[in-house]
Every structure is written in structure tokens, then in C-alpha cells.
Amino acid sequence: MPQMAFSIFSRGSLRMSFVSIGADMARRSPGFGFCFLLITCVTSGCRNAIPSDRGATAPPVKVEFATPIVRKVTDFAEFTGQTVATDSVDIRARVTGFLDKVHFDQTPPQGSDGVVVTPDPTSVTREVRQGELLYEIDNREYLAALSAAQAEVAASEAAQKKADGDFNRQKALKDRGAASAEEYDRAIAAKAEADAQYLSAKSHEKQALLNLEFTQITAPIPGRISRSRVTVGNLVSADSTLLTTIVSVDPIYAEFDLDERTLLNLMQRIREGKLSDTLERYPVALSLANETDFPHQGVLSFVDNRVDPGTGTLRVRGVFSNPRSLDDRGRLLIPGMFARIRIPVSEPYDGVLINERAVGRDQGQTYVFVLDDQNEVVYRAIELGLPQGNLRAVKAGLKGTERVVVNGLQRIRPGARVDPQEVLMESAVVGQGGEGGPEKPAPSPSPQ
Residues of 332-344 as b/e, b for ≥16 C-beta within 10 angstroms? Predict the structure, then answer.
């Protein structure tokens, strides 16, 4: 039995030993001979039916590659902020009285069928000019007060003329020695009192005239007017009742918080002479929530005097023009809007740009796969710069002439041969497998 087992498991003599043993057993038992013949046929057929996989290779994996884009780029830092009116005024009454008229239109327009049409929030009909009449307060009592003040002025003027005459006569008599000093002093005092009463009456007249003017409330600044908070017939109190508000519209501010790292970067550029000696007039760009680019150009107009120790940020403000639209339907920027603000943080340089989908990440290390002349995958560690639109700048690791895999990263490893198909870097899209973006373990780079 040991000899038989060794013979069976020996690679060279497996078939020969098995046949000789089976023949010997068949001579001793005819039934065993039939079984041996059947087993031999089956095993022989199975051995011939199993194909050999030696020499077979898997087809190359299909991937998409693109050549990096090389062009002049500028690094930008982006922040979120809010638009703010340069001027904002609360309109209040300066005198007390009943509201008589509202002069700016608050009635929503109606269509031909009589249905109220919701007004455009940027409609020019809600903009007012400086000095435009907004409200009128019942002025009858102020007209009466003005008449009384004018009568007081007339009376004091007459008294002043009499006092002047008495003084002149007393002075002439005194010069001739015909008037006593006491009478002369009384004339002087009467003249001074009459002059004072006249000045007081004139001031009362001026105040009455101002109060009458205050019954007509005008716009102190040009801008967009809010709804009227008081309707006709209601009593308004001087200096307390809020009637409406007006905000200026052109130009407009955008306020945001500059982080400390970016601030230090800009200060370094100032020290190197690449910027003016202050951040004022530094270029900024603005984008609204429904915009993908930054079409609104402006400059910094205000930089706060200290960094907030709680947030590590510095409050800054940019100013932007806000003209009417070409169709004269209003202005695009409205105070209180959410905005993204972008400021340049570098000089223009020749940048190597790749699609974000081509980037793999592994515990903080970023990498790409490039193809060599033999269409084999090569691992390449890179250092990313700031975003440039829908692309990403590469600060180190690529020259710009490589063939970078942009689709199929998860199906390849360094050293694998692939079937490449070229696409444009800017139009690279996710294919099967969903590449790029999320962090995933990097395959071990093969020696190059």
C-alpha cells in the first residue's frame, strides 16, 4: 500500500501505475474489472475536457485620459457675504398730525382681466428720486400757527419802530443837554427790548414755517422705497412714527469676513511691493446665488481696524456698481442678498490644470494615474493648488504633457496595461465606476 500511494501521487507515473493495479485486480474479480474500465474512461474524458489556463491573459481595461491644460491662471480666495445698502434711511414725521396723502404708488398693477399682477421686486416704479414728495400731513393748524407768528412779527416790528423813534429823540435831547440821563437810559432799554421781541417773533415765524414745510415729507436720498407702514387718516407723531424706509441702490456694498491666513498672504504681498500700501481699492468680484461665474467687479472700500479674536477674521467691505438693466426693469443687486466674493491672492502664472475627477486621495495624499508610452499605468503623487472654475491647479507633480487618466481610476492599478481613449480635460465626465473626488485607499505604487 505505501508503494501504491506513492505511485498514485507521483506526477510522472500516475496513469501507468493506476492501470497496472487495476488489471491485476480485474483478473481476481470480473466485477471489479468492469468498474475499473468505467472509471478509467470517465477520468480520462474529464482530464481531456479541462482546458489549460496557462498562457491566457485578461483584456486591457478601457479608461479615458486627457492632457492637462496649461494656461495663465490666478489663484483666488472665495468668501461668503451679504449685500448692504450704502445708505439706509427711516422716514419719520417731523410734526404731529393726521396723514392726509401718500404720493408714491403702492397699488399693485392689474392686468386686462382685472387680476392683480404681482409687481417685480426690482421694478423701477419703487425707486424714488431725492426730494420727491412722499407724504402730506394735514397742514391747517400749521398754517394757522404761521399766521399767528407772522402777526407777532408785525406787532414786534411796530414796537421796535416806536422804540427806535423814542431812542433817537432822547439821544438828540441829551446831546443838547435837554434830557436827563435817566430818560435816556429808559429809551436805550426800551429799544433793546423791542429789538429782542422782534428777533423772538421772527424765530417763531421761522419755526412755524418749518413746521408747515415738515407737513410735506420728501425723500432725503434716491433709492428703493419700502411699503408705507401708515395709511391715510391715521395720526402720526413727530419723530416717533415710522412711515417707510429708503435704501440706496447704486453703488452697493458687499460685506464679508477675511480669514487670517488670506490676510497675512495679502500683507506679505504689500511688503514685497506687489500691492499698494493699503488694501483699499483692492479688486474683488461678486457672484449671486444663481450665478456660476463672478460677473460683478468692484474694489475694497473698507477694512476694519482689528481681527475678531473669536473668529480669527477681519471684516471688510467691497463696493460695486449696480446700474439699471438694459431693458430698464430694475437693478440686479438688492440689499440683503447672499453673495460669494472672490479676491485674487497671487500674480498670474502658467498653471497646469486638471479635472477634479482625475484626482485620487489617500489619507491626505493626492495622486493621479498617468500612462506611459506602453499604455501602462504609473502612479504620480501631486500637490493641488486652488480651484480654477471647474478645474483644479496642480502646484507640483505634473509638467502638463502627461496623459492623465480621468475615468476608470478604481478599475486600474500601477503597472496595469490599459486600453486608453482620449477625451477633453474640461469635458471629462464620470463614467462607469464613478471616479475621483471621494477619498479611497491608493494602490501601492509600483517601482518606476
Answer: bbbbebebbbbbb
